[in-house]
Amino acid sequence: MKKIVTVILLVFTMVGIVAFAGCTDPAERAEVDLTFDGLGLEPPEDIASAATPVDPSKITLSSEVTTDKAVLESIRYLLKLSNQNNIDTEFYAAAAYGTGEAYIPSANLVGSMDTREWRIYDHGEYFFDSYGLVVEGYSKKDDGSKGDVPSGLVSLISQVLNFTERVYSPDSQTFYKLKDGKSTVDSFKKYPSLDAITYKKPKPEVTSVDEYIKQNFYRNSFKDYITDDLDYEECVTEGSLTYDEINGIYTLTCEINCDNEIALDLSIQSMKKSASTDIFKYAKKSLVIEIWECGLIRKYLNDNRWEAELLGYLEGSSENYYEQIFAYDKSLIEVMQVSDEIKNAVMGK
């Protein structure tokens, strides 16, 4: 998730830098089926039984959004429990997509980016694919309609910001990273296929697990799905929590405290480093998370808005959305269209 949000911030930065270069048409927006049919099914018994289940005695439900401390503590408990189970589980697969739109009011400029990623963790072996594509750049007219932007804007920021990253670890100790692929509209249509991105020079960077965690601003493990500081007692300001007895799913919605940087310190550090600015603040961070009663996460949705000052004078904001769906049945990697090499490696265990 950090990759997605960070790249949106960089879109904002580059829009400001090249704002006065001439006029171009918006890029074609990438379209892709994001339903992931088959993912999100109930974990098989062997995976579920190995996780720490939800303790109903620690749960206070509320179908209405509330600031009740018992409900907020229940939400915090579920966040910590499911994140730890994600770290401890021996197998999971997850597919995700993100969208973001950055806006500079003083120039009436908007930049948009889409991102895709998937990951598989299998008994120490780790596969990760992530890529992003600048999909649109336009001026915002007074009536709300879209106008032309300076020439070369979209193509220039695309050259700088379109990214790919592939990570492989055979043992969760040494990580091999590739970043020299090319993301295009065609590659987004192929997502989540591993063949969506072709790497020209498959010579990976090598790093240790500690370096990988530090470089990506994880808190506990590269298997974290959320790195907010949940030990901070006031990290959640309001929320709701319901339980579906038929399917055995808890659904929480919550607002993360954006007034105190303690809860979001690693995310903020990541943003500041990527955009080279010290003037950055989350204005909103809303989560919707589904958790199985066995304690494993099913779905993660993050909707956030930030405000920043860049280049010493440009102020702006960005709206970002990220959705990730988890699976714990190995047979479901068929849905993710991974290569035969990976499929055989996973299914052979």
Summary?
This protein is of the alpha+beta class.
Description:
By secondary structure, this protein is an alpha+beta fold. The chain has one domain. Strand 3 and strand 4 form a beta hairpin. About 7% of the residues have low confidence.
Tell me the layout of helices and strands.
Elements: H1 2-17, H2 45-50, E1 62-66, H3 69-88, E2 91-104, E3 109-122, E4 125-140, E5 146-147, H4 153-161, E6 163-169, E7 174-178, H5 185-190, E8 205-208, H6 209-215, E9 236-244, E10 249-256, H7 265-275, E11 280-292, E12 297-310, E13 314-327, H8 340-347
Antiparallel strand pairs: 1-9, 2-3, 2-13, 3-4, 4-5, 4-6, 6-7, 7-8, 9-10, 10-11, 11-12, 12-13
Helix pairs in contact: 1-4, 1-7
> First CA to last CA: what distance?
28 Å
Order of helices and strands: HHEHEEEEHEEHEHEEHEEEH
Average pLDDT score: 80
Largest sheet: 13 strands, antiparallel
Strand content: 35-45%
Helicity level, as a percent range?
10-25%
Radius of gyration (Å)? 20 Å
Shape: globular
Strand tally? 13
Q: What structural class do the secondary elements suggest?
A: alpha+beta
Number of helices: 8
Overall structural domain count? 1
Can you give keywords for this protein?
349 residues; alpha+beta; 13-stranded antiparallel β-sheet; 8 helices; globular
